[in-house]
Amino acid sequence: MAALFFVGSLGVAPASAARESLNFSTPFEVSDSPSGNYLAALVAGADHDTVAAATFYREALRFDPRNPSLIERAFVAALSNGNMFDAFTLADRLVQRDSTNGLAHLALGVKFLKAKQYPAARAQLARGGAGQQRDLTATLLGAWIFAASGDEKKALEYCDRLTDENFAIFRNFHAGLIAEFMGDTAEAGKRLKAAYDSDKNTLRLVDAYGRFVSRHGDKADALKVYTDFDALLPNHPLITSAIATLKAGKTLDPLIKTADQGAAEVLYGLGAAGGRQGDEVAAMIYLRLALYLAPQRGLTLITLADIYDRLKQYEEAIAIYESVPADDVLRTTADIQIAELLDNLDKHNEAAAFLSEIVKAHPNDEDALLALGNSQREQKKFADAAATYTKALSVSTKPDSVNWPTYYFRGIAYERAKDWPKAEADFRKGLQLQPDQPLILNYLGYSWVDQNMNLDEAFKMLHKAVELRPSDGYIVDSLGWALYRLGKYDEATKELERAIDLKPADPTINDHLGDAYWHTGRKLEAHFQWNHARDLKPDPDDLPKILDKIEHGLPEDKPPVAADAKEKAPATDAPSAPKSGG
């Protein structure tokens, strides 16, 4: 009989005792057929559904327990999903069959490190395949194993084996952390400063050095380390928390307090880099091993959840975000991400309620307010969204130039709420802060065309937006639809066909191209595009209009906007909104 499993069950302690954990589980069945389970595992793996892949591979392995390929696939799936008991068991079986399997040896090395079996851990890391990545990982983990054993000299000697200058930052960063862990302040200061001086734009380097200076140097110097970074990336919770602590006259704890945390930092760094480079499976594996050594590290959990988010595994992403500890400075960030994922799952009411709770608890949190405004805008509560964006701007501590997206989104909310003067003012403000921003050029230019005003400037904006983002189907569609609105149907058709090539599955663009085809006499093709738009699940407000065109076509009337019309005062009714392109 097939067994029933649940994906994404979120039975994790909530961030607030007053809030229950979310649970949007999706059930799936495990087959009695070995081939069925294997095929299901392949499909789940291709979809990056690590929960299902690990489950199906485990079931398939029960029927063919000696298959080396199946053992390896099941091992990788278990490790990617954080099933560490299964992963370590399968790693043991793997290395018995293939003594060069580097990933299996890495997993076992981490297992022995956690168990404080340091010679066994070193032995595992010394085996396996070759390559720069393996050498970097094994060398830095080996250094932390010696640090755990109390041998600073050997630990630093291991770090210094990384002679390739591409690894200089890793070498100095971890040598500095190890020296600080071992109480060698002079060596720690020299190494951490070298790492920081090499790259002042990386959060972990900044945080490690700032924390060190706060305890062993001038607090004013430490504060400058953080405020300099804040000027580059405003309002990161780890940075704002450190600044607040320093301004209160306190010192900061060291970044690393145990050897396990140090080894986890190695794995976190590799996982974060892999995620940025698009190697999601490797990134998940490194991050899972990091969490095995140092559970509940907020930044590691956030990074792992973000990978699941990008892979559209929203339930699993929510589960991981929920596991960020309640007292972690990244907890509110995790909650905001959960709310955005609920919107992605079409749980709009739950998302709005969730965000309202966050804003109630943190009324001056700009990121929470922006997320709430975005959710309200998605739900077409435009007046509410505009008010929320206004509140976000009022509490913002960012430089004004960084706030252009808030003016842009508030402008959209005002425009959709039929308050064009305020919308136009916000779009102009956004362009003042960020000249030639293609999203704003697109929205403002199209809106002017739709209202038959500022036509020369509007088309300059639309052409500029397309020039800046030639591969953005939404922006190309705006130019095409503006030409259509002026009755330039041949030119419109050319641009709208380009937009379709870029965004073939967008119902609005298909609808627009159908209209253009109709007015150029290509009525059979127009019906094809309208039928396609209908089948692509358009906005419910648009569907009746599309169905009417399918049945009756379009009236043979004059263009909606006269091509030679003079500029006029703003229309009393707001224009229909172009796609944002974002």
Distinctive features:
about 575 residues, mainly alpha, Serine Threonine Protein Phosphatase 5, Tetratricopeptide repeat, two-stranded antiparallel ribbon, 2 strands, about 70% helix, about 0% strand
Structure overview:
It is a single chain. The protein has 30 helices and two strands. It has 582 residues and is mostly helical. α7 (132-148) packs antiparallel against α14 (259-276) and α11 packs antiparallel against α12. The protein starts with a strand and ends in a 30-residue tail after the last helix. Mean pLDDT is 88; it is low at 1-20 and 561-577.
Class per helix and strand makeup? mainly alpha
CATH superfamily of one domain: Tetratricopeptide repeat domain
**SS field, number of helical segments:** 30
Reading off the top of the CATH hierarchy, the class of one domain is best stated as Mainly Alpha
Outline type:
globular
CATH architecture of one domain: Alpha Horseshoe
**pLDDT averaged residue by residue:** 88
Going across the biggest sheet, name each strand in turn.
Answer: 1-2
